[in-house]
């Protein structure tokens, strides 16, 4: 299955608790940390929710 490489570029400080929880669910909790996940509809939805704090590569 295809994978997506995501990097956190925005800080979760002063963000809603659900956005912080979404970052943790994606495996991100520190600035400039990178995670590689399977390309699924569930992961795409999580990425869309916090897209303003992420950089996405295929």
From TrEMBL:
Q: Which UniProt keywords apply?
A: Ribonucleoprotein, Ribosomal protein
Note the SUPFAM superfamilies from the entry.
Ribosomal protein L30p/L7e
**Large ribosomal subunit protein uL30-like ferredoxin-like fold domain location, by residue?**
4-53
Pfam name, any one: Ribosomal_L30
State if Ribosomal protein is listed as a keyword.
Answer: yes
Gene Ontology, cellular component aspect: ribosome
On assembly, the entry states: Part of the 50S ribosomal subunit.
Q: Which family does it belong to?
A: Belongs to the universal ribosomal protein uL30 family.
UniProt-listed HAMAP family: Ribosomal_uL30_B (MF_01371_B)
Give the NCBIfam families listed for this entry: rpmD_bact
The identity of this protein, by name, is Large ribosomal subunit protein uL30
What organism is this sequence from?
Sphingomonas qilianensis
Q: Which gene encodes it?
A: rpmD
């Amino acid at each position: 299955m295809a994978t997506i490489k995501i990097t956190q570029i925005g800080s979760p400080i002063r963000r809603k608790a659900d956005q912080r929880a979404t970052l943790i669910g994606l495996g991100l909790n520190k600035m400039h940390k990178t995670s590689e996940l399977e390309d699924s509809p569930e992961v795409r939805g999580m990425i869309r929710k916090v897209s303003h704090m992420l950089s996405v590569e295929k």
